[in-house]
Write a structure and sequence with these properties.
The protein is 18% helix and 33% strand. The protein is of the alpha+beta class and 277 residues long. It has a five-stranded mixed beta sheet. The chain has a four-stranded antiparallel beta sheet with strand order 2-1-15-14, with no helix packed on it. One of its GO terms (cellular component) is FACT complex. Belongs to the SSRP1 family.
Length: 277
């Protein structure tokens, strides 16, 4: 909403509240909230352990202070959205999941829905993504739905504005994800057919006849060297707030996409996320 920043932290061991297990911890800040603090550690020890990465006294936006502490003390990089822009030039599309309003973030290698319930879906785990009600909005409807089916689960996101259809299709073209049309008996959508971008209600029957029933992997492969979701550069961010300031902007730590220091891949299980709601 342009007023808040949010961290989404994926927990190695879920928190339990009664019979409910919480796999994510969500921290929300007012975007304009600023603080100043002094670390309970000497300058000498700071210089010895952290060098120029950390100062004894910190001040500025609270989310920025937390980012610096994560980076310096915990040695965890923070990932910000990249690779997708919505119809309104934001990093997410507004939708609902299980009757809860939120934002769906298409990241470089995953999807993230915040904030209740948090859903983190890696591209590698997706069997296919299915569009529903696109024939309706091609005629008179104002929204459509998508259903993401993984190896062991499925996630439905409803009420997406029809203006977000084209950005989502353009995003999927660059990913190795099978895409189906739920309005046409689950047949695979040929994303190379430009008519699908402009008029999803029309199905190119000739193209469909040439596609195997199992489905077409999203056209345009995602090179293994594409890289991980973009890291949050705290120093650069001071002059580039636009990287974070968008309606519902967020960031996600994808450990399996990172290496030590945030440069390459890591097998670490803990994930952290930062986002502006």
């Amino acid at each position: 909403d342009g007023l808040h920043m949010m961290y989404v932290i994926s927990l190695r061991s879920p928190l339990r509240q009664g019979q409910t297990a919480h796999n994510y911890c969500v921290i929300q800040f007012k975007k304009e909230r600023e603080e100043s603090l002094k670390l309970n550690i000497s300058e000498e020890e700071i210089n010895k352990k952290y060098g120029k990465e950390l100062n004894q006294e910190l001040e500025g936006p609270l989310y920025d202070i937390l980012s610096r502490l994560f980076k310096s003390l915990i040695k965890i990089s923070i990932i910000v959205p990249s690779g997708f822009k919505s119809e309104k030039d934001t990093d997410a599309v507004k939708c609902s999941s299980r009757a809860q309003d939120g934002y769906l973030y298409p990241l470089l290698k995953s999807f993230l829905f915040v904030h209740k319930p948090v859903a983190y879906i890696r591209h590698d785990d997706i069997k296919y993504l299915e569009f529903n009600r696109i024939s309706e909005f091609a005629a008179a409807g104002r929204s459509f739905d998508i259903n993401i089916v993984t190896k062991d689960n499925s996630y439905s996101f409803t009420g997406i504005s029809k203006g977000e259809y084209k950005p989502l299709v353009e995003y999927l073209i660059t990913k190795n994800i099978k895409v189906r049309n739920g309005d046409d008996e689950g047949k695979t959508m040929d994303l190379t057919n430009m008519d699908i971008l402009t008029n999803p209600g029309r199905v190119n029957r000739r193209a469909m006849a040439d596609i195997e029933e199992e489905g077409l992997e999203g056209m345009g492969s995602q090179d293994d060297s594409e890289g991980e979701d973009e890291s949050f550069d705290i120093d650069a961010q001071e002059g580039e707030d636009s990287d974070l300031e968008s309606n519902g902007s967020e960031s996600l730590i994808e450990e399996s996409d990172l290496e030590d220091g945030g440069k390459k891949k890591s097998k670490s299980k803990k994930k952290k996320a930062k986002k502006e709601e």
